[in-house]
Design goal:
109 residues; three-stranded mixed beta sheet; globular
Length: 109
């Protein structure tokens, strides 16, 4: 399962609305792809369709979909949003990551 913090929820709903998505029925698609300075990097997009092989979750009234391959890397992750002086953006707090890069956008297991 993937959890969503309160601040991430607020930002997700605002961004989905800006981009023409409906947070009550559309999804946040999270995933992992090869790349980044630590080997794997996170992806986050909005989607209106879940594929048959996707894992579907809901936490804090946010609907999340994850492809089967990425799910193995993201189990137990919390999606948070940081708006501090060091930069704004979504942050993946992933307990499976053994090493992360300085910017927090990539990781390795």
């Amino acid at each position: 399962m993937i959890k969503v913090s309160d601040t991430a929820k607020q930002k997700v709903v605002a961004l989905m609305t800006e981009e023409g998505f409906d947070a009550t029925k559309d999804y946040v698609r999270v995933g992992v792809k090869s790349g980044g300075c630590s080997g794997l990097s996170y992806e986050l997009n909005f989607d209106d369709t879940a594929e048959d092989a996707d894992k579907v979750f809901e936490d804090n009234a946010v609907r999340i979909i994850v492809d089967k391959k990425s799910f193995l890397y993201l189990v137990g992750t919390t999606l948070e949003y940081s708006g501090g002086l060091n930069g704004k953006g979504f942050v993946f707090n992933n307990p499976n990551a053994q090493r992360t890069c300085g910017c927090g956008e990539s990781f390795s297991l």
